[in-house]
Amino acid sequence: MLVSAKEMLTKAKAGHYAVGQFNINNLEWTKSILLTAQELNSPVILGVSEGAGKYMAGYKTVVGMVNGMLEEQNITVPVALHLDHGSYEGCFKCIEAGFSSIMFDGSHYPIEENVAKTKELVAICNEKGISLEAEVGSIGGEEDGVVGMGEVADPKECKAIADLGVTMLAAGIGNIHGKYPANWQGLSFETLDAIQQLTGDMPLVLHGGTGIPADMIKKAISLGVSKINVNTECQLAFAEATRKYIEAGKDLEGKGYDPRKLLAPGAEAIKATVKEKMELFGSVGKA
Ligand SMILES: [Zn+2]
């Protein structure tokens, strides 16, 4: 059964580790992530962007697939199904479809409007037992066609949003979606520290986890980050393994064209990436 992300993140913040959010794109992605979480006895958050939701034939299809898999594959670790960077309308659709967690990305609205819309969603999510992530200060890079400039959030605005009763808070601290450019300045730990001072127990979320050096990840966790989003890294691992299989001509040998064989190396590569991240984040054995 899907659970809200509240309990797993409260425990993570108190225990000084982070739970990974791994974005899914299809059945192979979902299966690889869930089986790895179960094997490592780790809580996990499955992220679904609005684009990926559309690609997977709609939110209800996603909920059906994930719920079926939890049951048929005997997944007993805590699993949250989370809308990633949701629009105001998208949040309502996912709540209706049966998601257990949502992110309302109101970072592009003026702060007053972000506050008003977040407040409304807090009331609905509390009533339904769904966890809610809010964002302050847009996160750099490209996500579903939306390009952010990689702002650093204002800690006072973070407190204002945290005080509305959201479950977890994503704040821009120089992090970027996708691959990091060679001239990247690194994370602003000063900002992260200031945000944690003002928001206390609130679990903080680090987006754009791909390519942030391990020591920076560990430092961010020590400063209150309890949820880390990983997306691009699984995509790169999947593509590389699939490329190797085809370049080696394996799809031309016997029944190597069978999709169950063709997609297997990519699925294994996702498992390896998820395992590596769960070990780095410290969530292994915390289910
Ligand atoms: Zn993000």
Automatic annotation (TrEMBL):
Keywords: Lyase, Metal-binding, Zinc. One of its GO terms (biological process) is fructose 1,6-bisphosphate metabolic process. Pfam families: F_bP_aldolase. Its EC number is 4.1.2.13. Binds 2 Zn(2+) ions per subunit. One is catalytic and the other provides a structural contribution. This is Fructose-bisphosphate aldolase class II. Its cofactor is Zn(2+). One of its GO terms (molecular function) is fructose-bisphosphate aldolase activity.
